[in-house]
């Protein structure tokens, strides 16, 4: 009975990975295309870890104790492909450079060990080296990806006013799941190379895959602008985050003029009430370039775009909560009226500015 259930779980697991890779390849939502393409390749490689069991279930024979050298090698590339998928999510205009060959040094060493094993046979020392390379590479890319995502989350505040849907939290969550999956599968393959995976192991993997799929399929377009605008925004974000010395993009007199125009625009047109307002849209309303507007906000107001816009939103929300209008709005209604696009974004941003959630602020104002 347990064996039959395990067989079913393996089939669902393998099929789920193939289906997820197909959805990422086809990308029906047409979002983050290059990132999803590389992510799909990585997921496809993960599916090959169960290829032996699937072949045995389907054709009555498996790959056996000694899988093809090429298959073992491409499985080792899964973390590399995932790393580049994250890179393209964060920086969709990225172009490969010679420095990227650095990522192939460890895979090349792994391939040499596989070839040596093929000719001389498996030795405990070589198995330990392989295990060290697998875990070491996975940990290295995981740390690097984690730092990249954290840097990106700071950078997007120079472009977007609502960051909850494009913060790549889902990708960070997937990172933890994939780290667990790759390490566990790799160790299992080395330690129990002659045995098929058991029901508990496969069930855990299936839960991880479903969690990855759920997170991946709810992603949003990170830079909802055209290619030229993407490059401009990424350039602005990177220059600010890396503290590249800023050129004087506008003169001192223009800075004073643009600050006055921006303050008047915010007061009369209230563009902050648009949940989708971003640096590009606001620059068009000001009839200035995104570079100029970013310079004005950062230099003239000593704020990033996110904090500048959400200051107005939070102040609007505070007035609505404290005023008589509160009788006509729920807290969610106040969130939308103030320019927030979700209750989560409202709560998180409001607390960031006031150290209180909207509910706590409401209670403190009413004396409860």
Compile the SSE list and pairings.
Elements: H1 2-26, H2 33-47, H3 51-59, H4 69-76, H5 78-90, H6 105-120, H7 124-155, H8 169-191, H9 199-216, H10 227-241, H11 252-268, H12 279-286, H13 290-300, H14 305-322, H15 331-338, H16 343-354, H17 358-366
Helix pairs in contact: 1-2, 1-3, 1-9, 2-5, 4-6, 5-7, 6-7, 7-8, 8-9, 11-13, 12-13, 14-15, 14-17
Overview of this protein structure:
- With 368 residues, the chain is mainly alpha-helical.
- It folds into 2 domains: 2-216, Rhopdopsin 7-helix transmembrane proteins; 227-366, Arc Repressor Mutant, subunit A (Orthogonal Bundle).
- It contains 17 helices and no strands.
- It has helices at 2-26, 33-47, 51-59, 69-76, 78-90, 105-120, 124-155, 169-191, 199-216, 227-241, 252-268, 279-286, 290-300, 305-322, 331-338, 343-354, 358-366.
- The radius of gyration is 26 Å and the shape is elongated.
- The N and C termini lie far apart (59 Å).
- The model has no long low-confidence stretch (mean pLDDT 84).
Alpha-carbon Rg, integer: 26 Å
The span between the termini is 59 Å
Topology as a string of helices (H) and strands (E): HHHHHHHHHHHHHHHHH
Strand coverage percent: under 5%
The major β-sheet equals:
none
List the main descriptive attributes of the protein structure presented here.
single chain; 368 residues; mainly alpha; Rhopdopsin 7-helix transmembrane proteins; Arc Repressor Mutant, subunit A; 2 domains; 17 helices
Overview in brief:
By secondary structure, the chain is mostly helical. It is 70% helix and 0% strand.
């Amino acid at each position: 009975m347990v064996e039959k259930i395990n067989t079913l779980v393996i089939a669902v697991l393998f099929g789920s990975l193939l289906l997820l890779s197909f959805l990422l390849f086809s990308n029906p939502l047409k979002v983050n295309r290059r990132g999803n393409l590389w992510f799909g390749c990585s997921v496809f490689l993960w599916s090959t870890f169960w290829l032996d069991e699937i072949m045995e279930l389907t054709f009555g024979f498996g790959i056996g104790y000694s899988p093809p050298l090429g298959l073992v090698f491409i499985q080792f590339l899964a973390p590399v492909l995932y790393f580049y998928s994250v890179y393209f999510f964060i920086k969709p205009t990225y172009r490969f450079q010679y420095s990227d060959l650095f990522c192939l040094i460890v895979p090349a060493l792994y391939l040499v060990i596989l070839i040596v094993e093929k000719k001389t046979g498996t030795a405990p020392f070589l198995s330990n080296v392989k295990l060290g390379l697998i875990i070491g590479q996975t940990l290295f890319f995981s740390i690097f990806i984690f730092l990249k995502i954290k840097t990106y989350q700071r950078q997007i505040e120079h472009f977007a006013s609502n960051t909850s849907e494009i913060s790549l939290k889902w990708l960070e969550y997937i990172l933890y799941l994939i780290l667990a999956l790759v390490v566990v599968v790799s160790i299992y393959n080395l330690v129990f190379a002659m045995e098929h995976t058991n029901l508990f192991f496969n069930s855990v993997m299936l839960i991880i895959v479903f969690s990855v799929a759920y997170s991946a399929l709810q992603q949003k377009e990170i830079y909802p602008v055209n290619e030229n605008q993407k490059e401009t925004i990424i350039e602005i974000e990177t220059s600010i985050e890396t503290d590249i010395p800023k050129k004087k993009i506008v003169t001192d007199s223009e800075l004073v003029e643009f600050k006055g125009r921006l303050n008047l625009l915010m007061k009369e047109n209230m563009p902050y009430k648009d949940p989708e307002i971003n640096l590009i849209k606001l620059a068009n309303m000001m009839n200035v370039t995104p570079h100029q507007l970013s310079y004005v906000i950062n230099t003239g107001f000593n704020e990033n775009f996110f904090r500048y816009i959400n200051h107005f939103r939070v102040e609007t929300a505070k007035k609505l909560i404290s005023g008589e209008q509160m009788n006509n709005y729920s807290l969610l209604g106040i969130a939308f009226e103030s320019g927030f696009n979700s209750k989560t974004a409202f709560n998180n941003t409001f607390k960031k500015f006031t150290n209180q959630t909207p509910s706590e602020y409401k209670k403190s104002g009413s004396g409860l």
